[in-house]
Amino acid sequence: MSVDTATVKRVAKLSRIAITDERAESMQSELNTILGFVEQLQEVNVEGVEPMTSVVDMVMRKRRDEINDGNKAEDVTANAPMSEDNFFMVPKVVE
Amino acid sequence: MTGLVDTRTPNPENFFAGDDHDWELVIGLEVHAQVTSNAKLFSGASTEFGNEPNANVSLVDAAMPGMLPVINEACVRQAVKTGLGLNAQINNRSVFDRKNYFYPDLPQGYQISQLYHPIVGEGVVTIQVGPDKQGQFESVEIGIERLHLEQDAGKSMHDQHPTMSFVDLNRSGVALMEIVSKPDIRSIDEAKAYITKLRSILRYLGTCDGNMDQGSMRADVNVSVREPGGEFGTRCEIKNVNSIRFMGQAIEYEARRQIDVLEEGGSIDQETRLFDPTKGETRSMRSKEEAHDYRYFPDPDLLPLEFDDAYVNEIRAELPELPDAKRNRFMAEGLSEYDASILVSDKSIADFFEKVVEGRDAKVSANWVINDLLGALNKAGKNLEESPVSAIQLGGIINLIKDGTISGKIAKDLFEIVWNEGGDPADIVEERGMAQVTDTGAIEAAVDEIIAANPEKVQQAIEKPNMIGWFVGQVMKATGGKANPQAVNELLRKKING
Amino acid sequence: MTDLTKLTIAQLRDGYKAKDFTSLEATQAYVDAIEAHNAAFNAYVTVTPDLALRQAAAADAKITAGNAGNLEGIPVGIKDLYSTRGVHTQACSHILDGFKPRYEATVTQNMFDDGAVMLGKLNMDEFAMGSSNETSYYGAVTNPWKRQGERTDNGTALVPGGSSGGSAAAVAAHLCAGATASDTGGSIRQPAALTGTVGMKPTYGRCSRFGMVAFASSLDQAGPISRDVRDAAIMLGSMASADPRDTTCADLPVPDYEAAIGKSIKGMRIGIPSEYRLDGMPDEIEQLWEEGKAMMRDAGAEIVDISLPHTKYALPAYYIVAPAEASSNLARYDGVKYGLRVDGKNIEEMYENTRAAGFGEEVKRRIMIGTYVLSAGFYDAYYTRAQKVRTLIKRDFEQCFDAGVDCILTPATPSAAFAIGDKEMAADPVKMYLNDVFTVTVNMAGLPGIAVPGGLDNQGLPLGLQLIGRPFEEETLFQAGSVIEAAAGHFLPEKWW
What we know:
The complex is a heterotrimer. Chain B is an alpha+beta fold.
């Protein structure tokens, strides 16, 4: 499988990465090199094989239903590029 | 969604009239119900509603680099409990997936959800539609497709600043159950009955408070229309409907819209729409819909969620009596289906009734709760939690009727006094001398007096036994309503008919 | 006084105990060395001398009081992907500009609890994506090793490997006593091999990932780069722990790894996988491997040929799984909560501009590959298939271990260090990816692996051997690794700086 520049642009859009037409073209060949490399997986017989969901055999640890975090709005927003009154601020979102 | 199966026989009463033929509605609901828990699904921050901005936010909820989710056991338990309450398949192994999309109230850039292996599989909810003119209810089974656990998103506010939106992550990471019905619903009434029933079940279970006005329960409504009994049509999804009334309006509008489009020779685009309650319309939501590709894959920060049958059975053993079972029991105890249905419709009403009926007659108790109490509450615009009359007080009033201390009529007055002023009903009766007169001497005197004063009515009463009612009324009036009506009746009959 | 920066962690520890010198003195020596020489390597992206000296003074007090921790007073460097409270933490990306976490990673907290002294944050490939440390926003790191005859300032600058290139270079150049690193596809072992240092990637789940900037969650694992095998054992003993904040972290006690050093490997069965003999593999690598076998045999181990048939599919499967996870893990860098924001006329533009400016080319490439392989219609063909192949890779190893193999010996890398700006590598991303061909299988199967210097190539550059062990049997690797070390000796770069 390989990608065309339209696909590269669609993927860039999905990834929220601005891309110029020129870069989309060079990216296309880079992505196709990688896709060509991974193509060899198609030759593996994976019939009846379960896809891996966790690499180590463990039972998932669970937390108790206790409130032991929060009340740190200042810490939460301390690194924000833009915030006010402990809200994050972003360019206006229109629905 | 797996292959759609039509489980229903078309019912002409539900059809929408069209130009050439009738149309049948097909509805499926995806209900998002906030899990009742102290802490969030994957963090130790509080789920409390209405706090200061970003106060209920941990560094995990804010998706700080290197932060990891750890699941809240109670949320798992609540989901299993809900699954059992929906008579559903519980999956001993489920997997959390990431649903990837960008939105400012989604700090991780993905929502942790369960797409491929949900915690709960197929189940069923039985709704009662009606009553019809004969007072009969129709039981309809609505299939449940699945229930899965997922994170809620934060909140963006758009009206605080001319060019900026404000983001508050307090809700980010709160546990939700998404409960997906099969497309088994065929009318607005059924849709309302379904969501009402679902809410009632969740409240009985204590797994969701069902408060739609606080957003702890909201629905995405899938609507399509078709020729009755025909192939399923293309559906539109109306997002985030947050009241049962709005849901009815939204479905109505959307059905008409789709019928209009189809009758004009057009076709329906599968899309997401938004209901605008002020205009009463649905409108196409994001024109960028085609750009959505959620790229679900198993969340590598979490292991599969696994538990054994013993865990499920332990939860099963703790299940409370649910509305259907309670209704059947009430009917077995002598209540009509109508009364029983009203009493079980809301857990708080059922609980109230059960307190009132304890050691008392079911029918009498049901009448008092439904006609008097709920009637008065309805008139006063109050809910049961705000009721000025408690179950103990109402029980006290019924006791006073039962033991003959007061008449049914006086009881109504007593109810009003308790409603307005509070107090112990027995004390009020005592203090205000409301007890009915059982002293036959006093009653007899009143009876004699009335008979003596109305000889011609006596003659009529001999011919028409129904006339005796007039005499009863007169005696009651003369005794200020305190005479025991039964005693008055007996005496009158004896004296008039000899 | 001897140059304290020459001493290993074990030697510093013994010296502190014997009151030969203090942590403050050793720390000052490192602060001075960094000041003098960091510019030659670009190993540190930020230094924290005040913090280090404060920690050293506190450590000295504890040493005097007789309650020294496992790493008491040991000056270490921390890879920039570990969250360190109040200190530069950017995974060497522009997109995390100015980010100073209000929290501490579990691994670094464990080390500080054991008395470690932090000298600063170490350079790395951006978000740990790279095998040469050239993708860092802070520029490439120069390997302290240069080719024979080129060991001057002007001699060809070689890469230290990656992604933990800063860690490896700092350890090799004696700019820290040991360093934390992380390994997703070989990022500890490959740079260790290219710098003549020891790199230990423990079993997935042995160290907590809490507070480590995530690259690929199912593969990322913390570990040390150190001067020798004993130091790696000492460091891992502090870094490893159970952690209720990481669901994928194992609930197992941490053994005394150092106790494994020097233990006989007599009777141990060492597997030699035939599939690691690649076409076109340089003779020197082949020869190194043979020497490694001989070292093990001489120490009494039994050498057995084994087969890991799915080996060649590990790298392609990795280049689906890792970018897929990364594309999702890096979605949080959106200009809203922290780091860089580049404005746009609406929120979508802000996202796109921020991420276009904030991520480097390699990171963008991987995000896009990851996005593509997860997108509608391709998920099963790529991602699901890759995860199935991963199951097969793990099964290969399990079958060998079940058959009685104690650990597996392979070369660590297919070549020695190459030049910064290597044209072939720059032109072909896959060529660069092939650097991890021997290491990536271990990540795919979640196993522990250690790279130990095995010798020098004919240009005088270090080469490493890799040992792969059973899950949570890191001790076996320290035991066998110390045998290689004893036989091969230590390798120090000739000083040109």
